[in-house]
Design brief:
About 45% of the residues lie in helices and about 15% in strands. It is α/β, with parallel strands linked by helices and about 575 residues long. The structure holds one DNA strand of 29 nucleotides.
Length: about 575
DNA sequence: GCCGTTTTCGGCCCGACTGTTTTCAGTCG
């Protein structure tokens, strides 16, 4: 799918135009187009050929034409032309905190700043102080921004950020002055990566809360502190923003600071249409607040059913909420078991029994054990004889365990030639066969897609593990054609995994949504290697929620009995 | 650039903080 490439192209086009000082609304239109294309669950090539792309709100004549051009030629001529008109190094400078398009444009035209290194040189000289609007403090700020930019590690994964945010909430929440406190922003929406943490507090003593916030133990630097908001840096590069509002504004503020920006713009539009105004304090009719205390009240007054935070991305949730047709999303408590768990038989760090007991403590009724297969030597993959011994151990364990069942399974390697690492006679004796790729990542799209398609065609394979192989921040997905994989999986009744490990979350939200739309069964699994890893199920479930999944879409939200009847589907096929 | 049961032209979400400003521009979310 070209969705990501086209989204990136619009983003770059917006960056270039912004630096050149183009109309801000035009720039914003391209940014919006970028986010819309990124969030599409369908293949843009399909939408474009059927003409449906022009029906999407926010995609008009101009952007649709650019999309068509890209699909046809692999380029957007408008972007190529614009990109030539400014130095290449300027786009990167937009990432420097405190440095915006206006200042970049000024530095470029007046001081010939064309790159990060030239910016650093300019910051050392005196000429920069002669520019209009430039003073000593501003220069100092930009210098600090450059330092922060060079040391930043990019966006962090949700799994890393969430515990830090929750600790801050717990510490501040102990204050008498704090009436309510909650994480907002992308953390509350459970986005897979996080730029900064947003914390919202309701209090009648904002000064004291801000004072305490800026003096929290892990705060390394106070970036700003006013009478209602403050920003600090903790744990290296992570920024935390605090906003304090009156308790009466809690609901409106929580909507506002949860975002996303696109979702908020839509809400404001609805408010305007209804003769109202929405800001972070209230939904107003003239001067009078008509809703503000709870999120539910704000949505209700706008004629919408309550929109769960994970859906607030302007990906159709507004339209669905108008018609009261939002899906009843799966919840963590719906999960009945984990279908991808390792043990110390391969590269795990706990016994099968310890993993089983940890699952049972979480309220699950079953778990499958899926150690690696023989070819994955680095992970002590099991040879056939060892797997047979493990099956005997599982039988013995099940005889002892009460109210819990361990299913026999494997995470069998999909080899470079497309065969799986165990013979069918063996796979037939297992309950849960997860097939995954752990080698040959650099193969062509046809090769790697072909490998997965042959695994799907094997009736003994139940689930394709981490279908794109990506690792957030360190490894791009392999070149798999997911559209073909999903269609084949829907056809054969093979499930696709949402791997809940925080660096994987694979399938991601939009892919999970597309899979569900095509009728593919979904499994949410943790790929745990130790008992604590099982906690990442939360991330998997919220990724599924971002993909609009209901309980009925998720196979491991079924009872053991119902799950078994699905696992036996191959026999009756 | 996008959009329209008030509009095909003239709007486009709204406010806090900072620093450079004597009334506001730039950045950020």
């Amino acid at each position: 799918m070209k969705n990501e490439e086209i989204s990136a192209a619009f983003q770059t086009l917006a960056d270039v135009l912004e630096i050149k000082g183009a109309n801000a609304f035009r720039v914003n239109a391209y940014r919006r187009a970028s986010r819309i294309v990124e969030g599409l669950s369908a293949d843009i090539a399909e939408l474009s050929s059927s003409g449906a792309v022009r029906e999407i709100p926010g995609i008009g004549e101009g952007t649709a034409t650019l999309i068509e051009e890209y699909l046809e030629t692999g380029k957007m001529s408008a972007l190529e032309d614009e990109r030539k008109s400014i130095p290449k190094g300027l786009i990167e400078l937009l990432e420097v905190p405190g440095l915006g398009p206006k200042t970049i444009g000024l530095l470029w035209t007046k001081l010939n700043v064309r790159s990060l290194s030239k910016l650093k040189r300019a910051l050392r000289g005196d000429k920069i102080l002669e520019l209009p609007g430039m003073g000593k403090k501003k220069v100092e700020n930009i210098r600090a921004g450059v330092t922060a930019y060079e040391s930043r590690s990019g966006r962090l994964t949700l799994g890393v950020v969430l515990p830090i945010g929750r600790r801050i909430v717990e510490e501040l929440g102990r204050m008498r002055e704090v009436k309510r406190i909650e994480l907002a922003g992308s953390v509350r929406r459970y986005r897979e990566t996080i730029g900064d943490i947003d914390v919202l507090v309701a209090s009648t003593s904002p000064d004291r809360v801000i004072e305490a916030f800026t003096h929290l133990e892990h705060v390394e630097e106070v970036l700003a502190a006013g009478s209602t908001k403050a920003s600090v840096r903790v744990s290296g590069a992570l920024q935390v923003d605090l906003r304090v509002v009156e308790p009466a504004s809690w609901g409106a503020a929580l909507v506002y600071f949860t975002g996303s920006a696109d979702h908020n713009v839509r809400l404001r539009g609805l408010a305007i249409d209804a003769g109202l105004k929405l800001n972070e304090y209230a939904l107003l009719k003239g001067e009078r607040a008509v809703a503000s205390r709870t999120e539910e009240a704000v949505y209700s007054r706008l004629g919408l059913s309550y929109v769960p935070p994970e859906l607030r991305e302007d990906r159709g949730e507004i339209e669905a909420a108008m018609k009261d047709e939002l899906p009843d999303l799966i919840e963590l408590g719906d999960v009945c078991g984990d279908l991808h768990v390792h043990s110390d038989w391969s590269d795990g760090h706990a016994t099968i029994e310890d993993m089983a007991l940890a699952c049972r403590r979480r309220g699950y009724r079953y778990m499958s054990i899926n150690d690696h297969s023989k070819s994955l030597g680095i992970a002590h993959g099991l040879a056939i004889e060892r797997l047979e011994r493990q099956m005997e151990e599982v039988d013995a364990l099940n005889a002892r365990l009460r109210n819990f069942t361990v299913l026999k399974g494997t995470e069998v390697d999909i080899l470079s030639d497309g065969n799986v690492d165990f013979p069918d006679e063996l796979l037939e004796r297992l309950d849960v066969v997860v097939a995954s790729i752990h080698s040959g990542f650099a193969q062509s799209s046809d090769q790697i897609t072909g490998r997965i398609l042959s695994a799907i065609a094997n009736p003994n394979v139940d689930i394709i593990g981490h279908p794109t192989g990506r690792l957030l921040g360190s490894r791009e997905p392999y070149a798999v054609d997911l559209e073909r994989v999903m269609n084949a999986a829907a056809e054969s009744g093979t499930a696709l995994e949402i791997n809940a490990y925080h660096e994987r979350l694979d399938l991601n939200d939009t892919n999970a949504r597309r899979a569900r739309d095509l009728g593919v069964g979904i499994v949410i699994s943790t790929d745990s290697h130790r008992p604590d890893d099982l906690d990442s199920m939360e991330l998997g479930v919220h990724t599924a929620r971002r993909g609009w999944l209901r309980r009925a879409d998720v196979l491991n939200a079924r009872t053991l009995r119902s799950l078994r009847s699905w696992l036996r589907r191959a026999d009756v096929r």
